[in-house]
Design brief:
This protein is mainly β and 171 residues long. It has one domain. Helix content is 15%, strand content 53%. It contains two helices and twelve strands. It is elongated. The model has no long low-confidence stretch (mean pLDDT 95).
């Protein structure tokens, strides 16, 4: 059986005063209709639970600190749906939440992510919506900050080495 091929990923972070919510979407080309057939046979939940467990393990390998406090990200739900209802193009979605923290109200806040460097096999974007003004960003990836300085988008290209230290400073 041929395996599905990842073709694109999107991640959306929403940074509040005391939590982060994250929505992740992985787009695939699935010539064998693996996910469609798992849904038809009612075996999809077991597959999604297995995928969630594996992805949680990867998330746990990364470290996220906010103002030097270690924050854990936990997958709350996993689902699959199809782009334009086409069984050849499944999308895996994950909803993730952080452990609680408090942002400084009158001082600079630092969001520091460390991920083991790796080559990404598909293009991706990662968007952060913040509750404050982005003052500075340190990243090896190409990024763009919106005019209000509350949103930042990272653009990742296929075969790019991603990971390492990334910092976002918010006032």
């Amino acid at each position: 059986m041929k395996r599905e091929k990842p073709i694109f990923a999107e991640t959306f972070f929403s940074l509040g005063n005391n939590s982060i919510t994250q929505n992740m979407y992985f787009y695939y080309y699935d010539i064998s209709k693996i996910y469609f057939n798992l849904i038809k046979t009612s075996a999809i939940r077991g597959e999604l639970d297995s995928i969630q467990t594996n992805l949680q393990r990867y998330i746990d390998e990364d470290t996220l600190h906010i103002n030097n406090k270690l924050i854990r990200m936990v997958i709350k739900s996993t689902d699959v749906f199809f782009r334009d209802n086409d069984p050849l193009f499944p999308i895996l979605s994950f909803q993730v939440s952080s452990t609680p923290f408090l942002l400084n109200t009158n001082a600079l806040n630092e969001v520091h992510l460390y991920a083991k460097p790796e080559k990404i096999p598909y293009s991706a974007i990662s968007c952060w919506n913040t509750c404050g003004s982005i003052q500075k960003v340190e990243s090896n990836s190409f990024f763009s900050i919106n005019g209000e300085q509350t949103n930042i988008t990272f653009f990742l290209t296929k075969n790019e080495i991603i990971g390492g230290h990334e910092r976002i400073f918010i006032q």
